[in-house]
Write a structure and sequence with these properties.
The structure holds two protein chains of two kinds.
Chain A: H1 2-8, H2 11-20, H3 22-46, H4 56-67, H5 84-110, H6 116-146, H7 158-170, H8 174-196
Chain B: H1 2-28, H2 36-55, H3 61-70, H4 73-76, H5 82-85, H6 87-102, H7 107-135, H8 140-162
Classes of the chains: A mainly alpha, B mainly alpha.
Chain lengths: 199, 163
């Protein structure tokens, strides 16, 4: 309800809203960014088998969510005098979400550094890893929507399998090595966010 | 019309330079870890301006992605004092990258700047091979940083040719 209200609010009222209900305002802002990240990852998952990757629209939407301060990105968390009890945890979340956006955009750019053959190998191996990312993102979204933990938090050894399967290719391919590291970092950030959720 | 194009190019360059400055401030400031949120907020603001420019210039998306990959080094490193060992080399890299961005739309200038960047990368590779690989907690981080820089160099070259 509150998040619906917030979207329609103009600047001074939005400011009052964030002052009076900072937790609700933060939740609705973070949720909007997480949903853009989810849409982007879904687009990545859908276009994995396409030789000509075209993720521009999803990437632009993700950037738009980060750029539009006031309406989506909760810049006010960094404001001077913001509630000291909430400040540390909100800033931590925002920093990690910001990093996640950076990593997602960076991993898209790396595709251009890979040759066609490597991209085909990668597309086969990457699918379960991206599904794992999406599952963790789903947990986060569910929490921010309902305030409850999702019952099915399961992530397997998909990253270890990916690393093993790509071991011989990674040795000689810098682009692939970076891409692999990015996937590890994405998972690391997501796990940090999930484990930081209040029980 | 030409004036508008020039103005947009200048805004794009200014945004790149601001991100460059904020990023290297994070690496080279001794108090980054104690004031992480302050530095990250500055960097976020600079990235926001850059993203605004990239949204109206989608051809620069790959260039931005390569720069974002290079910037991941600050999260991957576990001991920030290691950057102080390579402070001189990082300073040269900052200047060389700045020169590349500054001359991005100048046909003559960018070639020299890219050569300078290549030289700065070689200089960093030298200290990586001789010092960081021996003394750093996780030397892999710097290898990845160099790979990212090589990718950024290639993207800058490609962007120059396309522009």
């Amino acid at each position: 309800m509150m998040s619906f209200l917030m979207r329609g609010l103009r600047a001074p009222w939005r400011h009052i809203y964030t002052l009076c209900w900072p937790v609700d305002a933060f939740k609705s802002s973070v949720l909007a960014i997480l949903k853009q990240q989810q849409a982007y990852l879904s687009a990545v998952s859908d276009t994995l088998h396409e030789p000509t990757l075209n993720l521009s629209d999803a990437a632009l939407a993700l950037m738009q969510a980060s750029v539009s301060s006031g309406s989506v990105y909760p810049e006010w968390v960094f404001s001077r005098g913001f509630n000291v009890n909430l400040r540390a945890s909100f800033r931590f979340f925002l920093l990690q979400i910001d990093r996640l956006t950076d990593l997602l955009l960076a991993s898209d750019g790396m595709n251009f550094a890979l040759d066609k053959e490597t991209r085909q190998v990668l597309s086969l191996e990457l699918k379960p890893v991206i599904q794992g990312h999406l599952a963790l993102l789903e947990v986060l979204i569910y929490f921010f929507e309902t305030g409850l933990w999702s019952s099915d938090i399961a992530h397997g050894d998909d990253l270890a399998v990916l690393q093993n399967n790509l071991a011989e290719h990674v040795m000689w391919n810098a682009g692939l090595r970076l891409r692999l590291q990015q996937q590890k970092d994405i998972r690391d950030v997501m796990l940090r966010l999930v484990t930081a959720l209040p029980v | 019309m030409g004036f508008l194009i020039k103005m947009r190019q200048r805004q794009f360059i200014e945004a790149l330079l601001a991100v460059n400055q904020c990023f290297f401030d994070c690496l080279l400031s001794a108090n980054y870890q104690s004031n992480q949120y302050l530095y990250e907020r500055r960097l976020h603001e600079a990235k926001r301006q850059l993203m605004k420019r990239v949204i109206s210039r989608p051809s620069a998306m790959v260039l931005q992605a390569a720069f974002l990959e290079v910037m991941q080094v600050r999260y991957r490193v576990s001991d920030f004092s290691e950057f102080q060992i390579a402070a001189l080399e990082l300073g040269v890299l900052q200047q060389a990258l700045g020169a590349c961005f500054m001359n991005l739309f100048k046909v003559d200038g960018v070639v020299g700047a890219l050569e300078w960047l290549q030289a700065a990368m070689r200089q960093f590779e030298g200290i990586n091979e001789h010092v960081l690989k021996v003394s750093a907690r996780d030397p892999e981080v710097y290898t990845l940083f160099l790979m990212g820089l090589t990718h950024l160099h290639a993207c800058l070259n490609r962007y120059r040719e396309a522009a």
